[in-house]
Amino acid sequence: MRYSPERKEAVLRKMMPPHNRTIRELSKEERISEATLYNWRQQARDKGVLMPDADAGPEGWAARDKFAAVLESAAFNEAELAEYCRKKGIYPEQLSRWRIACEQANDWDRERNRKLNKEQKKDRNRIKDLERELQRKDKALAETAALIVLQKKVKAIWGDHEEE
Description:
This protein has seven helices and no strands. With 164 residues, the chain is an all-alpha fold.
């Protein structure tokens, strides 16, 4: 069934803040299949429209939607930010946390590499210590084997003096 662009836009607005209606609610109310509503929401997201998941609330928004909200509000002053947050149904504190998360998003790789290098250094040191210990034990084993061989040769040459 074909829906007019006006109806589609009206339904999509109901999904967005401040209404934040779930797809299930809208499906029953508007008598449009849930699959169609999911498709409309995805198409709007693909066009860059901030379309949060109403089922989860602002903290359950997809990372892409949070990032879009941070970008949209980046240049706002305090009054504009408050108005934006009211329209979107979020708190300025949430937006601030999302901004911090976005700023730190690219540091995860550097931090992970730093931890990995630390672990590798520990592993290299442990390997060196184990190799030194293995060398020491190999020398001790070789020395013990040499002493046993010498004892056998001494017994073979002079015989066993314990019997006398």
